[in-house]
Amino acid sequence: MGDLTVLAHHSPLVTPLRAGELKIVDNAGIETYIKVEGGILEVGSNTATILL
Question: How many domains does the chain have?
Fold first, then answer.
């Protein structure tokens, strides 16, 4: 298991997600936690897309 932090202007990236907890922090600093069973994370053009 590992951690990945994506900040503004992150380099383009596509990576698989394993089962676990996904923490999303928005621009206002509000934290949202989502349980995932796996998926794909794509980062590019200053956006992050999560496919579950």
Answer: 1
Model confidence, pTM: 0.82
Q: Is the pLDDT of residue 43 over 70?
A: yes
Instruction: Based on DSSP, count helices (H) and strands (E) in the chain, helices before strands.
Output: 0, 5
Q: Token digits for 35?
A: 């349980």
Question: Domain containing 33: what range?
Answer: 13-42
Query: What is the rounded CA–CA span in Å between residue 33 and residue 36?
Result: 10
In contact, 50 and 22? CB cutoff 8 Å = yes
Tens of pLDDT along 25-35? 998 999 999 99
